[in-house]
Design goal:
single chain; about 250 residues; alpha+beta; five-stranded antiparallel β-sheet; four-stranded antiparallel β-sheet; elongated
Length: about 250
């Protein structure tokens, strides 16, 4: 399966978080989730969307008519075996369909409320119990076509940023790429120059916790080699969320 396709990765991550990914497909995806940081970031983005919303929902008491419907079904189920044997296969089939329709309606209604609720994409991610992942900042940067191009990661209190180009970015000899941290409020923070292919590393002026704690996005701009880097001089080539894994 081609996991590089962003639309496929997004669908698989959504299905995994919603719990609709089943059987062998789910087992394959769990192995990929364990070994691939890109996949973990995809799943984290869906967890950021849904988990805070579920925690904020108020408890609602079931409607009285629902309890009455449940009581009727219990009474129906307690009939004698002889009466149950007289029930036709068509009646039993219609009863199962009615119950399945009710369950599906409740599920879809809850999901609609979750998706419609306003949420904050920058919430911190609590790593589920049993998943081995050091506290770190990470981001997948995409180009204007939505293709994942750059993987960025840094330990929470580290002083370096590791970069891996998932797809090479062609550069002229007089050009260089610069990585920026974009906080919620304020000017972009220059993190340093990076390579357009392969792996590279940036030495930070402070710890990643000091520099990235309020950062919601990471971006890359194309700059003139040897020129000033106080602020981006060109529109961003790549952008992506900065996720916090702890």
């Amino acid at each position: 399966m081609n996991y590089v396709r962003p639309e496929l990765r997004d669908r698989l991550a959504a299905a995994h978080v919603h719990g609709t990914l089943r059987g062998r497909a789910r087992r394959r995806y769990q192995r990929l989730l364990r070994d691939d940081l890109v996949t973990r970031v995809d799943v984290t983005r869906w967890e950021q969307r849904l988990m805070p919303m579920g925690a904020s929902l108020k408890e609602r008491a079931p409607a009285e008519r629902m309890w009455r419907a449940i009581e009727k079904r219990i009474e129906h189920g307690s009939r004698s075996r002889s009466a149950a044997r007289q029930t036709t296969w068509l009646e039993r089939w219609l009863g199962l369909r009615t119950f399945a329709s009710l369950a599906a309606g409740i599920f879809l209604g809850v999901m609609a409320m979750l998706i419609a609720t306003h949420f904050d994409d920058t919430t911190r991610v609590a790593v589920p119990k049993g998943r081995v992942l050091p506290e770190s900042y990470a981001g997948i940067l995409q180009n204007d076509k939505g293709v994942p191009t750059l993987l960025v990661s840094s330990l929470r209190n580290g002083r370096t940023v590791d970069i891996k180009a998932l797809n090479p970015i062609p550069l002229r000899e007089d050009q260089v790429l610069h990585l920026w941290a974009l906080p919620k409020d304020g000017k972009p923070i220059a993190l340093g120059a990076i390579a357009g292919s392969g792996k590279s590393q940036i030495e930070l002026s402070g710890t990643s916790e000091q520099l990235l704690a309020n950062v919601t996005e990471l971006a890359v701009s194309l700059e003139r080699k040897g020129g000033p880097v106080a602020s981006p001089s060109q529109p961003y080539l790549l952008r992506g969320p900065c996720a916090k894994f702890w």
